[in-house]
Design brief:
It is a single chain. The chain is an alpha/beta fold. Helix content is 27%, strand content 28%. It has nine helices and 13 strands.
Amino acid sequence: MTQNVYDDAAFFDAYSRLPRSIQGLDGAPEWPALRALLPPLDGRRVLDLGCGFGWFCRWARAHGAAGVLGLDVSARMLARAEAETRDPAIAYVRADLERLDALPGPFDLAYSSLALHYVDDLAGLLWRVHAALTPGGALVVSVEHPLCTARARAEWSADAAGRPTWPVSGYLDEGPRATDWLAAGVIKQHRTIATYVNVLIRAGFAISRVEEWGPTEEQVAAHPEWANERQRPPFLLLAARR
C-alpha cells in the first residue's frame, strides 16, 4: 500500500503552506513545461492520478475537458479538492494507485504530477492506465528526478586523493528511499531514467518526449531563489501515447 503521509496532520499542514499549494499550478515552476506537453483538451475525458487539491482537474475543465476524474489516496487532499470545486463534470475518488482495479475509462488523457515516484508497482499501474486510454490517448507525467531520489550527499566532496566524488550514491540501486521532506521517513521509489522509459515502453506506450526540467534563465531572473535548481534537474517530465 502507498505510504499515505499526506493524511498526517503535521505533514499536511506543512504541505499546505508550499507555494504550489497556495498558488496552484502557477506556483509550480515546472508547470509551463508540463503544460506544453498536453494535447488539446476540448471534449476530452481526463484522468488525474494523484490529483491532490484538484488544481489540474479544475484547469482541465476550464480548458475544455468534457469530464475529469481525480484519484488520490489522501482523504485530506480530496476534502480540500471537493471544497474548492463546483463542477459536476469533475469527480474525485479516494484510491490507492498501488491497488487499482481496472480504471473506469475510456480516457483521452492520463495526467500525473509528482505522484508516481511514490508508487512501488509502477509497471502494473501503467498497464492499467494504458488499457484505460483510447487509441492515440496521451499520458503526461512528472516525477521527482532520479538524481534527487537516489541517496544524496549534501554537497560535492572529494576522496582521500582530492578527486571529486559524485553528489549522489546508489543511483543504479533502485528501490524505496526514506527522506526527510516536511516530515521524517517519507518513502519515495527511486528509479533510473532508463527504468521510467522502459516501463512505459513495456506497457505499450510510444514515448513522444523526455525532459529533464530545470528553470529557464528567465525564470531564475524572476525568482533568484530557483538558481540552485539549475545545478541538477529537480523533475523528470515524460509524455507518451497509447
